[in-house]
Amino acid sequence: MKNPHYSISTPENVDLHLEMAGMGNRIWAAFIDMCLLYLGIIVLVLIAALVVLFLSQAPIEDAIKTSSYYYIVGAALLLIFALQFGYFIAFEKLWQGQTPGKKIANIRVIESNGQPVTWSSVIIRNLMRIVDTGLMMIGVVSMILDKNERRLGDFLGGTLVIRERQPELSTRLLRIEATEPASSFCDAGQISPDEYHLLVAFLRRRGQMETHSRSALARQLQELFSMKLQTENQGESAEKYLEKVYLAYNARARLEAS
Description:
By secondary structure, the protein is mainly alpha-helical. It has 11 helices and 4 strands; from the N terminus they run E-E-H-H-H-E-H-H-H-H-E-H-H-H-H. A hairpin with a 5-residue loop joins strand 1 and strand 2. 23% of the residues are buried.
């Protein structure tokens, strides 16, 4: 049986455990994206047809009409081609590894080292989509055989597709003693989703840890976030510092959502 988790050791020697998206979620996301993609193609075809109809009724020479038809058809085909290839590439890069379908399915593409995807990664993995979906569904076979559920595009692009954890579920059982920090405490916008999940995982499970392990991990996480956020130690414990980072992150999230 496959292990649904993928572990990454960060440069700070903190282990990050990620959950693979699963074939069902990926197929559901792909279905949604293909529906949106074909809807866009239908709209393009309808627009081209309306332009042709308008020209056919216009009082211009037949030779000009004929050449215009060729240009319109050619432009429509180019736009359809660009939409088919650009849809996944543009969304996955600009939406940090998500498309509309992936967002609905709560999954995300990341680099195999846990970092956000780069342009080269999304271009390679999506150019391989033709092979993965067209050559006897070889991408599905690859996902079944690989323990990390990667298709050929993921192998060549160096990417993984993980499940996006929902903050409302992952933070439900947290017990926070720190008070809401001032807005100037830190720039929580620098914290990536994976780093936030790592922080939440510690705050949720610290009560189940042995005292020594809990203190050591808290100090490691404090060093990680203080280095990233460029914050100074104000004489507080490592756990109190982490609680303030958590509150600052959520305060920013509420502000952005309002």
